[in-house]
Amino acid sequence: MDPVTLETERLVLRAFAPGDVDVVYDACQDEDIQFYTPVPVPFRRQDAEKRVYEDWPEGWATDKDYTLGAFRKDGGAFVGSYCLTRLSLGVFELGYWAAEKQRGRGYSAEAARALCDWGWAALDVHRIEWWAMVGNTGSRAIAEKLGFTVEGTLRHRVIANDGRPHDWWVGGLLRP
């Protein structure tokens, strides 16, 4: 599938372009992104280039991972990365992270809602899942604001970048 562009009241969500490497690199220097998301640590410029030039375009080309960058309409500031990833037939995972300076303003919920709405309309989706490491209360607040039901805690689900296993929350959102 070709990448789409989505618009909300305050944001434009679009495929990442070569000119976005620096904003991805800068955002992923944040300790919370490095702890709570599966990015390499340390996150190097070549890691940002691989995502922008290879990984994210391949996700669209193979219809497995639909990643968009969110940018503010009032000046173009980079907000974060938002994706729907195919897990199985009709089941996708919503993933997101926000640049540190853009948190706490409702942008992530706005961007994630737009992406989920697009998923319901354009993809064969009957369930969207959300996963977050226990303790990532910002991610959980966004998921709950979007209507996800937190369905449980998985003990020691993933070994994080600190080398230790961590518990994870899982939630689900069913087709409206």
Describe the structure.
Pfam families: Acetyltransf_3. GO terms for molecular function: protein N-terminal-serine acetyltransferase activity; protein-N-terminal-alanine acetyltransferase activity. InterPro entries: Acyl_CoA_acyltransferase (IPR016181), GNAT_dom (IPR000182), Ribosomal_N-acetyltransferase (IPR051908). This is N-acetyltransferase. The chain has a single domain, classed as Aminopeptidase (3-Layer(aba) Sandwich), CATH 3.40.630.30. It is globular. The chain has an 8-stranded mixed sheet, with helices on both faces. The protein is built from 5 helices and 8 strands; from the N terminus they run ββαααβββαβαββ. It has 176 residues and is of the alpha+beta class. The mean pLDDT is 97. Helix 1 crosses helix 3.
Summed up, the helix count is 5
Which architecture name does CATH use?
Answer: 3-Layer(aba) Sandwich
Any idea what the CATH superfamily is called?
Gcn5-related N-acetyltransferase (GNAT)
Extended strand count: 8
- Tell me the strand percentage band: 25-35%
Spans of at least 5 consecutive residues whose pLDDT stays below 50 are: none
The count of domains is 1
Supply Rg: 15 Å
- Using the coordinates above, name the CATH class: Alpha Beta
* Shape field: globular
Largest sheet, strands/sense/barrel: 8 strands, mixed
Mean model confidence by pLDDT:
97
CATH topology: Aminopeptidase
Strand order of the largest sheet: 1-2-3-4-5-6-8-7
Query: Helix fraction?
Result: 25-40%
Order of helices and strands: EEHHHEEEHEHEE
Q: What is the end-to-end distance?
A: 24 Å
